[in-house]
Amino acid sequence: RAKELGGRRVEVFAAHMHADVVRRLELAADLQRALLEKQFALEFQPIVDLATSRVTAVEALVRWWRGSTFVPPEQFLGPAEDTGLIVPLSEWILKEACREVAAWRASSWDIGLSVNLSLRQITSPSFVESVSEALSDSGLPPSALTLEVVEEMLVEDAEEIISRLSTLRSLGIRLAIDDFGTGYASLAPLRQLPVDMVKIDPSFVAGLGQDETLTLLTRTIVRLGHDLGLIVVAEGIERPEQLELLREMGCTRGQGYLVARPMAARGVDSLMRTSLQSTA
Ligand code: C2E
Ligand code: MG
Ligand code: MG
Ligand code: MG
To answer: Where in this chain does the record put each EAL domain (predicted)?
Structure first.
């Protein structure tokens, strides 16, 4: 009886595993096809200067519609990384984003571009070259591009990564630490890699004005960032109270649904027109 139950449990487990493997293989195949059929798109989320409310940059965010279903980046970036598809995908993202932003700058709108990097992208042999190529093809000046990395990428055996990022920085490209404060060795990367910017993780910003510890931690990160001469960006601003506190703390820049949602290039076009009119 026990044996029978145990056997059945193994069978159920195996069937479950099987379904999971099939799902992952299907996803990998779909990703490959999506890349060939150009199913990926970019959205851009404005980042504003908190003192003046002016848009200083946009962050490129990849979007995938799998048929009529939207798949969030957090669901397909892992599999894309595992299969290596992240490398061609990231090269496309970088080229496309540089091209769009260079066009906005050509209309005399002074904005920068932030692009997220993935680990496998940075370690791929063509990384440094593909970044330079995206810049030269689009005409975007290196100083207008910020590359975002997360702390985890800079912790273990990161010498090669740090050396590649340092090379890019010596070309004038800016570096940012994304999701700052969530890693276990928050300050270590700042010692190993010269960066220009830290982006405070939304988990801190979420507690602003509601949670004393998170408010204090946010204030501390802003001060630390400024003491280190860095631009400090707060991410995930959703409530007016958060915006007010960040302004009062002297945080440099802000990003979040309250300020602006990620939008297609056409949305940025109209934002640019209003923006250029208001400064004309
Ligand atoms: P991230 O780089 O930290 O990007 C910010 C994420 O927060 C974006 O989610 C954005 O839509 C979302 N967000 C912005 N403001 C708010 C807000 O006020 N409230 C809330 N709840 N969310 C807000 P998204 O686009 O789903 O991207 C998630 C993550 O996936 C990104 O986090 C980044 O790590 C990764 N990712 C996105 N696009 C790319 C890409 O092109 N390349 C790579 N390598 N990673 C990407
Ligand atoms: Mg980011
Ligand atoms: Mg982030
Ligand atoms: Mg993130």
So the answer is: 24-276
CA angle, 79 then 81 then 85, to 5°: 90
Q: Vertex 115, ends 198 and 205: CA angle to 5°? A: 40
pLDDT in tens, 155-185: 777 889 999 999 999 999 999 999 998 876 5
Per-chain residues with Cβ under 5 A from ion ligand 3: 178-179, 235
Check whether 216 has a pLDDT greater than 90.
yes
**Measured from the CA of 118, which atom of ligand 1 is nearest?**
44
| Spatial separation of the C-alpha atoms in residues 133 and 116, rounded to whole Å | 17
Measured distance CA(109)–CA(252) in Å, rounded: 20
Residue pair 276/256 in contact (Cβ under 8 Å)? The answer is: no
Give the whole-angstrom CA distance, residue 173 versus residue 42. 21
Instruction: List CB contacts of 66: < 8 A, sequence separation 6 or more.
Output: 30, 34, 39
Reference 233, options 72, 46, 86, 98; nearest CA is 46
- Which of 90, 116, 199, 246 to mutate for ligand 1's pocket (most ligand atoms within 8 Å of CB)? 116
